Amino acid sequence: MKIVNSIKELKNFLSKEKENGFSVGFVPTMGALHQGHISLVNRCVGDNHVCVVSIFVNPTQFNDKKDLETYPRTPEKDITLLESAGCNYLFAPSEHEMYPEPDTRVFDFGQLTEVMEGEHRPGHFNGVAQIVSKLFAAAEPDRAYFGEKDFQQVAVIRAMTKQLHLPIQIIACPILREADGLAMSSRNVRLTKEQCQKAPLIAQTLKESTNFAVGKSVKDVTAYVTDTLNKEPVMRVEYFDIVDGYTLLSINDWSETTYPVGCIAVFCGEVRLIDNITYEIK
Questions:
Q1: Contact yes or no for 186/159 (Cβ under 8 A)
Q2: pLDDT in tens, 197-215
Q3: What is the domain range of residue 48?
Q4: Smallest Cα–Cα separation from 278: which of 179, 182, 204, 209?
Q5: Is 37 annotated in the active site?
Q6: pTM for the whole structure
Q7: Of 187, 235, 151, 210, which is closest to residue 68 (Cα–Cα)?
Q8: Which of the residues 37, 49, 120, 165 is marked catalytic?
C-alpha cells in the first residue's frame, strides 16, 4: 500500500492506473477505522482494480469545536487495517493540502439538509459537500463507497454528485453492527464502560419498534422510541424522525411513502450516536 500526502502525487499515481484500463474505487473516511469502514474497503477491493482510501478529519463539517478536538485519531492502527484489507493507496493529506485557502462555496440541497442532522448541526452538510467534492476531484474514482449508518449523508452526497455532474457511482453499504447490535462508529471508543452497556439499547429499541409499529400510527412509534430511550438516565434523544427514505421529509402517515425510515440521534453521556432502521408496513 502506498501512502500519499499530496493531491498532485495521488493524481499522478491514479492516472497511470487508469491508463492501464484499471477502475478506481474510493472510500473517504475520517480515520479511527473499525470493521464498518473495512466492510466498505472490502466491497471497494472486490468491485475495482484499484482501491483508494482517504483519511482526513475535516474541520469544516464540525459545528462543535470540542467534537473536532475529541474526534479519535489512530493512524498506526488504521494503516495496519488498510494493508490487511488490500487497500492500494492511502491518501492522508494535511489540512493545508485540502484547504490552501478557505472554501467559501455554499451548496444548496434544499430540504435534504434542512431536517434531522442538518437542523441540529448547522453547516455540517455544507462542510461534507466541500470536502467530498475536493476528494472526488483528487481521486476521480469510478465508484465511491459510504455506509448507510449516515443515511442522510448518503442522500446529500448523491445530490452533490448529481449537481456537479460527476461521473461517479455512489454505493451505499449496509450498517455493520457489534455483536450486541450497536452500530459501529469511531465515536464508540469514547463511551465509558457503563455507556457501552447501555448504548446497544438504541438499536434494540429501533428493532423492537418495527414490531410495535404493526397497527400503530407514525406518532405512536415515534413516541415509543423516544420515551423508551429517554427513560435511561444516561440517554438523551436529540431527534427521532420517521421520514420518506427518498426525500427525507417527515411523514405523518404510513401511506405517505413506500420507503419509511426511522432516523435517530442520541446522546449517550456526551457521545452523540446515530442510527436508522427501515419499516416494512404492510
A1: no
A2: 999 999 999 999 999 999 9
A3: 2-173
A4: 209
A5: yes
A6: 0.94
A7: 187
A8: 37
